[in-house]
Every structure is written in structure tokens, then in C-alpha cells.
Amino acid sequence: MTFSHGPVILGLESSCDETAAALICADRRILAHRLATQDAAHRPYGGVVPEIAARAHVDALIPLVEAALTEAGMTLRQVDAVAATAGPGLIGGVMVGLVTGKALAMAAGKPLIAVNHLEGHALSPRLADPALEFPYLLLLVSGGHCQLLEVRGVGAYRRLATTIDDAVGEAFDKTAKLLGLGHPGGPAVERMAASGNPRAVPLPRPLAGSADPNFSFAGLKSAVLRAWQSGQWSAADLTASFQQAVIDCLVDRTRIAIEAMESPSALVVAGGVASNQAIRAALGGLAAQAGLPFVAPPLWLCTDNAAMIGWAGAERLAAGLTDDLSFPARPRWPLDPDAQKVRGAGVKA
Ligand code: KG4
Ligand code: ZN
């Protein structure tokens, strides 16, 4: 049903360990958002187990869609399009969401929009802030990615930098695992770091100060391991020092990208790690120094959710971009297909 405020999009997310469904209007109204986290199912293993995740998505997704439709007071046939994450991510989960999206689109007789999960994160700041115009400089920091992107428009990205080894969220998760802080690691490290001294433990800032625009976190991870094994430092001081090292790397690399990009409208941060308050504050400071507005979505919109997938669907629908029911699930799917591959173990970008 096309309300006076434009089409309504059903968004589905299932690429990692959150299952979510949302109904989003093209005028940015969120009619419903339902999310089931799988934290408890994965906690005993200290990380996300792909098979457990895929099964949990199967169980959770349809009830979440039904609950979202009930909350919005709508039927499936009244939805104008179905947007589902089609990658990148854990392939089992992506397939569950995409196949469900195709079935619902077919049942409703409405178009399917196959959304790149990274585009969901990349456009989420425009859901939160209607004033945010293209092009903007985006620092995308999540469990699988750490990239600086010039966001030129819907479907138009130029990658300025990426990690040559670990993603930044992965570095948080591995630090948490090492210190026995549990899963998911990012929020646990942030909580522990709040009572520590960020200057206590000498840790490296890989690539900081270099002309190479990319990120690297593997050396930092190894340094954290050695520092912890030395028994010299408290968990609070080590997590605070780790978080500070990450912040210094992110700020240093982002500063280079600001210089490399021609008149960005704003500095924007998105992705799960963007919910970290210390990181937000540091990037806000950098933007102020550069004379740029700073945009960071609300915390719930940084970590995986279906509102950002529905919103990316709304932006793509407005641009006339819909997809065929034969669209494949993609475990890897770079936003900038022309970006040079970087070499390094574990590179996911
Ligand atoms: O975007 P996201 O929810 O899922 C992916 O697409 O990867 O990001 C999840 C990542 C995890 O590595 C998690 O530990 C990290 O974001 N994260 C945080 C915080 N909250 C989540 N990292 C640092 N500080 C946080 N507060
Ligand atoms: Zn994500």
C-alpha cells in the first residue's frame, strides 16, 4: 500500500547472528522493527557458529516478519517491495534471508531488492539524518570489515582504504576472547576499558603515519596477546590501551582519507563498531578539526538490524533498482567492484 508518505519496504536481515525484519517508509518512518539476537546460542563457543546461526535464522525469521506486519497493522500484500540481505556474510544465513525474501516478494506480487549488507550500513546514516547529502566520507567498521569509502550515491562507492588483515570488530572480539570477556566482544571490551588507563600499556599503532592509506590490526592483536601473557597488566588497563590504539589508527587513517577526498559533505561512521562511544567521540573531534559535519547513526542502527536493509531497499527502489528472483546469495560482495584486492591472510574485503 502506498501511503501518502511513499512506498513501504519490508527489510530482512540474516547475514550474521542477528535475525531481523522491519517495515520502513520511503519518508524514513519506521513502522515496525523486530530483532532476535543469537548471542546466547553462540556464547558457549566464544564466537558465531555458522550452522547454528543458519538454523536459528530459519526458526526466527517468519515469526519476526509476522510480528512486524502486526505491529504496523499491515498485510504482506500491502507491502510495496521486499528487500533482503543477499550478502556478504555467512552463506547459510544469507540464503535463509534471501530465499525467504524471494518467497515473500512472489507471494505479495511485489519486487525483490537484493541488498548488499554493506550498503545497508553505508546508507543507514541517511535514514537517521535526512540532511546528509552525497558524497560523504564513510568509515565502515564492523565485524568483517574496516573500510574508508567515498559514498557518491546509491550503488556508487569508491573504496579509499581497507584492512590488509583483520577487521576492526574482529580485533575487539579476539581481545575479548583472550581476556575471557565473552561474546560479543566489542561491547564487553568497551565496558571493561571504561575503568582502565588508555596510556598504561605500550601497544603498536600499525601503519599509523604511513602514506599507505590502509588499515592493519593483526600486529596489534599479537601485541595484546603478548602483553596479557606477560601478566603485567590488568584487564581494564589492557582493554583501555587496546581501544586507544584502535582509535589512534582509525583517526590517523581517516585523516588521510579526508585529505584524499574532494569536498565530502560530512564524515560519517557506520557499522557495529560505530556504536563504541570512545570511537565516536574521537571521530567527532577529527571532523570538527577538519571543519566537517560528523554523522553517526543511533547505536541500535549501527549494529546489524533490518531497518537499514529496508532503508537501502527504499533508496534502491527510488532509483529504479530492483532485482530478479534468480539473484544469487553472495558470501563476498565488495561495494566497490573496481577496488584493488589487498593481499593478506583473512582479508574479507
Ligand atoms: O555491523 P555488525 O553488527 O555486524 C557485522 O556486519 O559484522 O558488527 C559487529 C561487530 C562485532 O565485531 C562487535 O564486537 C562489534 O561490531 N561491536 C563493537 C561494539 N559493539 C559492537 N565494537 C566495539 N565497541 C562496541 N561498543
Ligand atoms: Zn553488519
Written overview of the protein:
By secondary structure, the protein is of the alpha/beta class. 42% of the residues lie in helices and 17% in strands. Strands 3-2-1-4-5 form a five-stranded mixed sheet, sandwiched between helices. Helix 2 (50-72) runs parallel beside helix 3 (91-108). The chain is globular and about 60 Å long. The mean pLDDT is 95. Bound molecules: 5'-O-[(R)-(carboxyoxy)(hydroxy)phosphoryl]adenosine and zinc ion.
In short:
With 349 residues, the chain is of the alpha/beta class. The protein contains eleven helices and ten strands. The chain has helices at residues 39-42, 50-72, 91-108, 117-128, 168-178, 185-193, 218-229, 235-260, 277-290, 299-302, 307-318, and strands spanning 8-13, 18-25, 30-37, 81-87, 112-116, 136-141, 146-153, 156-162, 267-270, 294-295.
What is the averaged pLDDT score? 95
Largest sheet composition: 5 strands, mixed
Helix/strand-derived category reads alpha/beta
Choose one word for the global shape.
Answer: globular
Topology overview:
Blueprint: E1 8-13, E2 18-25, E3 30-37, H1 39-42, H2 50-72, E4 81-87, H3 91-108, E5 112-116, H4 117-128, E6 136-141, E7 146-153, E8 156-162, H5 168-178, H6 185-193, H7 218-229, H8 235-260, E9 267-270, H9 277-290, E10 294-295, H10 299-302, H11 307-318
Parallel strand pairs: 1-4, 4-5, 6-9, 9-10
Antiparallel strand pairs: 1-2, 2-3, 6-7, 7-8
Helix pairs in contact: 2-3, 4-11, 5-6, 5-7, 5-8, 6-8, 7-8, 8-9
Bound molecules: 5'-O-[(R)-(carboxyoxy)(hydroxy)phosphoryl]adenosine and zinc ion (ZN).
